[in-house]
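[audit] Reproducing an earlier prediction to check determinism. Same input, same settings, fresh worker. If the tokens differ from the archived copy the diff job will pick it up downstream; this log only records the rerun itself.
[audit] input (393 residues):
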Amino acid sequence: MSIASLALRPRDPGEAHRAASPLELFTDLCYVVAIAQGAAQTHHAVSHGDTVHGLVFFAISFFAIWWAWLNFAWFNSAYDNDDVVNRVLTLLQIVGSLVLAAGIPRMFEEDFVLAVLGYSIMRVGLVLMWVRAAIGHAEGRRTAVRYAIGLLIVQGLWLAFLLVGHDALIPVFVLFALADVLVPLIAERTGSTPWHPHHIAERYGLLFIIVLGETVLSATVAIQVGLDGEQSSARLLTVVAGGLLLVFSAWWLYFAREAAEALTGNNVAYLWGFGHLVIFGSVALVGAALAVRVDYYSHEAHVSDRVSSLMLTVPVVLFLLALWLLIVRLIDASARTWGPFAGAVVLVLASTWTPAPELFAGIVCAALLVVELRLTRGAGSSGRPTAIAGGGH
């Protein structure tokens, strides 16, 4: 294979009708397998009374999955030409994601060997992609080389992480995760990669939908197990109704406004892209929380009503805050958007002390959706406010 065949030219960031490829969709599905594993382990840990441990290791596992996905998604937006080599390297990263998924149960037992192996496989594929970009894109060569070197250095840190003792696991993980996050910030100081705003927005939206699907699956399986028991199904109906309201409202709220038009450059994209960790993570955690609520109603959970309620309402609050900060605020930061969102946050938190927090939180989110739909009714495709009868901007 010649050097010329390895060269990778950048895509046009203004390309019309740019859409996610079938391979990118397949990749997302495989990454969500790992997310589902993390949510399932969190559900079991919290139900058995290990709430703090479960939530901490959910955060650790979710960061590893999401960060690997994010790096792949932004690279592909800038350079994917869908040739044979790029497909093979993408499939290599899928293999790594599946190895990582297999290692997540062990990760919750503080055994990181399989997870680091999977992460290393994904990094090998991504580094080779950046080498191809360095060969084929003279203007972006310094940036591509920085990415490749930075990824290799940080991956060396993750291999060294396997030698860290039990007492230092959490602080060292946070330190190395920060080093991982610094790679794109440092690499792109020599020039921005030519990512495509509409393609990136679509990629994030598709992953959001798939994570919502994982949330529905987690709750459905838990409800099925609850119905197979001897307990009355009446209280499980609140989980069904509340869960559906939460999932439907989250989907509609997320897509109520066109995020791509707000992605005007790296300054916005860093906050928007990195901040989605909270959006994706909170939605995945809602699925685990609904499963814990089913266990509580079925008397299978070794956790109190208040703790299991907070496990649901806090992620919903985080989702609403992140949604306003990352999407709604960029389009309309006026009081008529932050006011309803702030009210919804307060009411969702207050629902923690109600007899059925999942149902009350779902009703609040549905009410917020109604307000959002009224605000965007007179807007264009972007969801930006327009002057309508009886009011202005």
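[audit] rerun output stored. Observation attached for the diff report: The chain has two domains: 21-190, 197-376.
[audit] end
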